[in-house]
Structures are given as C-alpha cells and as structure tokens.
Specification:
Elements: H1 2-24, H2 43-70, H3 79-106, H4 122-125, H5 140-159, E1 168-172, E2 178-182, H6 186-189, H7 191-212, E3 215-216, H8 223-257, H9 267-301, E4 319-320, E5 324-325, E6 334-336, E7 343-345, H10 350-373
Parallel strand pairs: 3-6
Antiparallel strand pairs: 1-2, 4-5, 6-7
C-alpha cells in the first residue's frame, strides 16, 4: 500500500514539475514563443498558459489514478509515466500554437525596436546594485559528500562480503520480498553503487559545464536577461548538488540493505526512503528555484538598464518546437533553456553530439559494467 501511494505521489510530482516549467522559463518566451513585453499580458498568452496547466494537470490526474492499479501489471507499469509525458507534450504543442497564431495575426514584432546586449562583464556584476546576485560555481561540498555516501555504502558491503549469500537477491516485489536472485559477483552485489556513481558522474558533468562554460542567453538577449540567466544557472547548480546528495544517500542505504542478510529486513524502508528523498528533493529544488527567482525579480526591478526600452529580437525560427536551438551561424555551444531552467546546447555544434555520446556511454556503461564483472 505504501509503495502504491509513493508511485502515485511520484506521478503527481512529475505532473506538478511539468506544469510549473513555464514559471521557471524566461518571462519573454512563454511556452517557447518569443513575445514582446507589451504583449505578455495579452489574452492569447495568458489563456494559453492557463490552458497548458489545465491540460497537463488533467493528464496527470488520470495518470495518477492509473498508477494506483497499473503498477501490479508489468505490461502496464510504465503507462502512467507515458500518459504524463505525452499529455504534457500535447498541452505544450497545442497551447503554444495559439500564441504563435495570435503573434502572427497581430504583427507583434512589427515596428518594434530590438537590440542584443553584449556580455555582462565581471566588473559590472561587482557593482553595488548587482551585489548578492549569484554566479555559477561547482557544488564541491555536496558532490564530494555524495561520493562519500556511495563509498561508505560500498565499504560496508565489502566488509560483510563473506556473509553475503550466493545467489544474492537483486529484485523485490511489491511486498518488499526478494523475488529474483543472481550469482554472487561484484556486479550483482554492488549494482546500486554503480548506478549511483553513474548518476553522480552525469550530474557532475552537467554542473561542471554550467560552472566553467560560457552559457549564452538566446531566449532573451537583454542585460537584465543575462543577469537573470547567470543567477538561475547558479541556483540550478546549487539545487542539483543537494538533489544529487539526497539520491546518493538513498542509493547508499539500498546498497547496504540489499545484499547483507543482517540488514535485509530494512530493505523496504531503504527503498521507501530513497523514493521519498528523490521526490522530496525534486519538489524542494523547484520550490527553491521559484522562491529565489521571485527574490531576484524584486532585486532587478529597482535597477534601470540601458536597453530596458528595447526588445530582444524574434528568433523563433532558430528553435525547433520552441525547445531545440539550432543555429549553424552562432558560435555559442551552450545556451539557456527556452522552456524550463538550466542550460541546453546549440545542436548545430559538434560539442553537443560529443556530450550526448558521453551521456549514452555513461548510462549504458553503468548497466553493462555489473554484467561484465559478473
């Protein structure tokens, strides 16, 4: 029963995060459509945003109801997540078309003066009015703490190696009882640690990119947008570091309680704790970003910028589906996300292809390595 409720809660959290995504994005690009400041309150925009939330939540509620029953059936277990994903895509695509149609019919960018801000210098950010606005740094404390959690779990299991049975349990049913076993090996015993290390490596790579690479704003290209983008990336790195630590701690608990007989009676609690930490961490990350963004908006509201009366250019044609930035003429490799928060790639650059190759290699390797070692 507890596991069922957790799965239903997970579906609701995913729905809530998807419905909240427009609030995390740049204000000038609702649902991935570039809109001038004067038209952000246009009925076509506000009704489209409301419609997106209504449709996303409707699909999420249906998926949550399905998760209460479908999780017992292996063939239908993934259906609720699929409903949420497809429902969110449908809500996004259908509602953004309304904004595009109104923008085209009303000629929103006709005779609008546009400008592109230069890169904001470190000297400018150090000015008194900009003090307190964070800049991206790598979350060393939480990342190293995550590695320590994973290492602690692996060391505890290694110290009990002789007590681990052969075969070793590798899967538990809805009653948290072992229902599948595998031959005792490094791969089968330390599977949770390998997965945790893969996730840690992936998050560390993303945070490193954000902290040490030039992330160029393309959704909006004003001075204020650049400052807001820098701050959002800094907050995203901080939040991702904490989320990584929570997930690593949960995986370390599962690593200890899974193979060691003396602790297996706590395995159900460990799995539940892992799910709660992941769900709670995801909620906390979004709430943290929303709160900090509202504080940042208040801080920037009292500052006059030289380009405040001008608009960033309409560059919808450079985005596929309002999400994927593809511009061979732009030397930028990393750009801000147009929908949501964080960073994305200029998919016309070779670095994007290399990065995704590394991601696939890490994920596939983390699953293949235990098999190879076994």
């Amino acid at each position: 029963m507890i596991f069922t409720l957790i799965m239903a809660a997970t579906t609701l959290v995913i729905t809530w995060i998807m419905a909240t995504a427009p609030s995390l994005a740049s204000p000038g690009t609702p649902l991935g459509v570039r809109v001038p400041k004067a038209y952000l309150s246009d009925p076509a925009v506000t009704s489209a945003l409301a419609g997106f939330k209504i449709r996303t939540w409707s699909c999420g509620i249906v998926a949550t109801a399905m998760s209460l029953f479908a999780w017992k059936l292996p063939l239908l277990a993934a259906l609720p997540s699929l409903v949420v994903a497809l429902g969110g895509m449908w809500a996004y695509a259908s509602q953004r078309r309304r904004i595009i149609a109104a923008k085209k019919a009303g000629g929103w960018f006709d005779e609008v003066e546009t400008s592109i801000a230069a890169r904001v210098s470190t000297t400018a950010i150090d000015a008194p009015e900009f003090r307190g606005i964070p800049t991206p740094t790598f979350p060393w404390v939480t990342m190293l703490s995550s590695l320590l959690c994973i290492a602690a779990g692996a060391i505890i299991v290694a110290s009990h190696w002789s007590a681990i049975p052969d075969p070793v349990p590798v899967h538990w049913n809805e009653s948290m009882e072992a229902d599948n076993w595998s031959d005792k090996s490094i791969g089968s015993v330390f599977f949770s640690s390998f997965v945790a290390l893969a996730l840690l490596g992936l998050f560390a790579i993303i945070c490193s990119f954000i902290a040490h690479s030039e992330v160029s704003p393309r959704s909006e290209r004003s001075i204020k947008a650049r400052l807001r983008n820098e701050a959002n990336l800094a907050l995203t790195n901080t939040g991702m570091g904490v989320l990584t630590l929570l997930i690593s701690a949960g995986m370390a608990l599962m690593q200890v309680t899974g193979p060691i007989p003396h602790y297996q009676r706590f395995n159900g609690a460990a799995i539940t704790t892992m799910l709660i930490l992941t769900i709670g961490g995801s909620i906390g990350l979004v709430v943290f970003l929303l709160y900090k963004q509202s504080r940042l908006s208040e801080q920037l509201r009292g500052i006059h910028f030289a380009d405040e009366d001008k608009e960033s250019p309409d560059n919808d044609h450079l985005y596929k589906w309002g999400v994927i930035y593809y511009n061979p003429d732009d030397p930028a490799v990393l750009v801000d996300k147009r929908f949501g928060t964080g960073m994305s790639f200029n998919y016309a650059r070779w670095q994007a292809k290399v990065f995704f190759g590394l991601v696939v290699l890490i994920l596939v390797g983390s699953l293949a390595l235990p098999v190879i070692l076994g």
